[in-house]
Protein backbone atom coordinates (compact mmCIF):
# COMPACT_ATOMS: atom_id res chain seq x y z
CA UNK A 1 0.00 0.00 0.00
CA UNK A 2 2.76 2.59 0.76
CA UNK A 3 4.30 2.04 -2.70
CA UNK A 4 0.95 2.91 -4.31
CA UNK A 5 0.77 6.17 -2.32
CA UNK A 6 4.32 7.12 -3.31
CA UNK A 7 3.52 6.40 -6.95
CA UNK A 8 0.41 8.62 -6.77
CA UNK A 9 2.39 11.47 -5.16
CA UNK A 10 5.14 11.23 -7.78
CA UNK A 11 2.55 11.25 -10.58
CA UNK A 12 0.87 14.29 -9.02
CA UNK A 13 4.20 16.12 -8.76
CA UNK A 14 5.04 15.34 -12.40
CA UNK A 15 1.65 16.65 -13.55
CA UNK A 16 2.11 19.79 -11.43
CA UNK A 17 5.59 20.34 -12.89
CA UNK A 18 4.26 19.86 -16.44
CA UNK A 19 1.43 22.33 -15.81
CA UNK A 20 3.84 24.90 -14.39
CA UNK A 21 6.13 24.46 -17.41
CA UNK A 22 3.18 24.91 -19.77
CA UNK A 23 2.24 28.21 -18.08
CA UNK A 24 5.86 29.36 -18.34
CA UNK A 25 5.97 28.37 -22.01
CA UNK A 26 2.73 30.28 -22.71
CA UNK A 27 4.22 33.34 -21.05
CA UNK A 28 1.58 33.48 -18.32
CA UNK A 29 4.11 33.02 -15.51
CA UNK A 30 7.82 33.41 -15.05
CA UNK A 31 9.89 30.74 -13.37
CA UNK A 32 9.95 32.33 -9.90
CA UNK A 33 6.19 33.12 -9.76
CA UNK A 34 5.42 29.58 -10.98
CA UNK A 35 7.76 28.15 -8.36
CA UNK A 36 5.92 30.06 -5.63
CA UNK A 37 2.47 29.22 -7.01
CA UNK A 38 3.10 25.48 -7.30
CA UNK A 39 5.51 25.12 -4.37
CA UNK A 40 8.26 23.79 -6.65
CA UNK A 41 11.88 24.85 -6.12
CA UNK A 42 12.82 27.54 -8.64
CA UNK A 43 16.01 25.67 -9.55
CA UNK A 44 13.97 22.56 -10.38
CA UNK A 45 11.69 24.57 -12.67
CA UNK A 46 14.65 26.37 -14.22
CA UNK A 47 16.47 23.12 -15.03
CA UNK A 48 13.30 21.41 -16.30
CA UNK A 49 12.58 24.40 -18.55
CA UNK A 50 16.13 24.40 -19.90
CA UNK A 51 15.96 20.65 -20.64
CA UNK A 52 12.74 21.27 -22.61
CA UNK A 53 14.15 24.43 -24.28
CA UNK A 54 11.43 26.59 -22.69
CA UNK A 55 12.35 30.18 -21.92
CA UNK A 56 10.46 32.25 -19.39
CA UNK A 57 8.93 35.63 -20.28
CA UNK A 58 11.73 37.38 -18.38
CA UNK A 59 14.37 35.59 -20.48
CA UNK A 60 12.56 36.71 -23.64
CA UNK A 61 12.50 40.33 -22.58
CA UNK A 62 9.14 40.05 -20.82
CA UNK A 63 6.12 42.26 -20.97
CA UNK A 64 7.45 45.04 -18.80
CA UNK A 65 5.09 47.87 -18.03
CA UNK A 66 6.69 51.19 -18.77
CA UNK A 67 5.50 54.13 -16.71
CA UNK A 68 4.24 57.06 -18.75
CA UNK A 69 4.19 59.53 -15.87
CA UNK A 70 5.54 62.92 -16.71
CA UNK A 71 8.29 64.20 -14.50
CA UNK A 72 7.07 66.80 -12.06
CA UNK A 73 9.64 69.22 -10.82
CA UNK A 74 8.77 70.83 -7.49
CA UNK A 75 8.90 74.53 -7.24
CA UNK A 76 11.87 75.74 -5.17
CA UNK A 77 10.21 78.79 -3.69
CA UNK A 78 6.95 77.03 -2.88
CA UNK A 79 4.79 79.28 -5.10
CA UNK A 80 4.09 79.37 -8.80
CA UNK A 81 4.91 82.40 -10.96
Task: Write up this protein.
- This protein has helices spanning 2-26, 31-38, 42-51.
- It has three helices and no strands.
- 53% of the residues lie in helices and 0% in strands.
- It has a domain at 2-51: Orthogonal Bundle (Arc Repressor Mutant, subunit A), CATH 1.10.10.
- It is elongated and about 45 Å long.
- 10% of the residues are buried.
- The chain is mainly α and 81 residues long.
Q: Can you summarize this structure?
A:
This protein has a domain at 2-51: Arc Repressor Mutant, subunit A. Helices cover 53% and strands 0% of the residues.
The helix content, as a percent range, equals 40-55%
CATH-defined topology of the domain at 2-51: Arc Repressor Mutant, subunit A
- Give the strand content: under 5%
Order of helices and strands: HHH
Helix and strand content put the structural class at mainly alpha
| Gross geometry | elongated
CATH 2nd-level architecture of the domain at 2-51: Orthogonal Bundle
Major sheet attributes: none
CATH class of the domain at 2-51, named Mainly Alpha
**Distance between the terminal alpha carbons, to the nearest Å?**
83 Å
Number of strands: 0
Q: Using only CA atoms, what is the Rg?
A: 22 Å
How many helix segments? 3
Instruction: Report the mean per-residue pLDDT as an integer.
Output: 77
Low-confidence segments = 62-75
Amino acid sequence: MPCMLIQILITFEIITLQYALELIHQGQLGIKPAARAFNIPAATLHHAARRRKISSPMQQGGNHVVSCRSKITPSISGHQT
